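Quiz preparation item.
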């Protein structure tokens, strides 16, 4: 059973005609976007969408989903996105796909955030997944040292030996903190460091998590 497809497609049931939808990034929300594309093509649904990455923008364009930017609308009715970890308070770690800054901006502009995931992302305490932190390339080594001082091991994300560059032209440090006792406090502390653009901690942002399991769907709200 494809549990990502199960969760991804379920989220489409929350989408209504006329909505502006934030489209997340990743292999689970891929199934949401594909399903939305089908409905738009069959003229069963009329939506506009704001993508959280170039990758999602390309997919939505390919599927014929009309896109808009914040120049047209600063309010998003509903965002559907994936996550790398979630706990029972619906706090998240995101950014495994490198889109955390736009994902957070779109989520923050949304009236509702639905996360689609599989059971392997469910944790008691977040932090086992290395926390992605987007940093300005200039002096990234200094920023990494400051982050290291918060008791973690930061690793510069690389692709084929070169630094990974986000859609915003920045680098990403994957930071192994181990279990994070107070995610909200850590998020605030990291964001005060010069050079940090944002963190993959999404605290009190998600309203619902749709979880695909081999026994069917679970929904947390
Ligand atoms: C991208 C993300 C993704 O939503 C997250 O990595 C989950 O992706 P997937 O559904 O492929 O496991 O945060 O920046």
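Solution:
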């Amino acid at each position: 059973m494809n549990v990502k497809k199960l969760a991804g497609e379920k989220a489409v049931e929350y989408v209504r005609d006329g909505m502006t939808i934030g489209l997340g990034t990743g292999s689970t929300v891929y199934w949401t976007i594909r399903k939305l594309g089908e409905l738009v093509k069959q003229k069963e649904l009329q939506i506009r969408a704001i993508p959280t990455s170039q990758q999602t923008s390309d997919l939505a364009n390919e599927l014929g989903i009309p896109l808009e930017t914040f120049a047209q609308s600063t309010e998003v009715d509903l965002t559907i996105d994936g996550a790398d970890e979630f706990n029972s308070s619906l706090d998240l770690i995101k950014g495994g796909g490198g889109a955390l800054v736009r994902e957070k901006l779109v989520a923050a502009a949304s009236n509702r955030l639905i996360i689609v995931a599989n059971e392997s992302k469910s944790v008691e305490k977040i932090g086992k997944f290395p926390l992605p932190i987007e940093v300005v390339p200039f002096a990234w080594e200094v920023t990494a040292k400051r982050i290291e001082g918060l008791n973690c091991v930061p690793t510069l994300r690389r692709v084929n030996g070169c630094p990974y560059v986000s859609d915003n032209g920045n680098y990403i440090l994957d930071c192994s903190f181990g279990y994070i006792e107070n995610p909200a406090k850590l998020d605030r502390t990291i964001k005060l460091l010069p050079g940090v653009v944002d963190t993959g901690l999404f605290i009190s942002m998600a309203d619902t998590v749709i979880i695909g399991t081999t026994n069917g769907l679970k929904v947390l709200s």
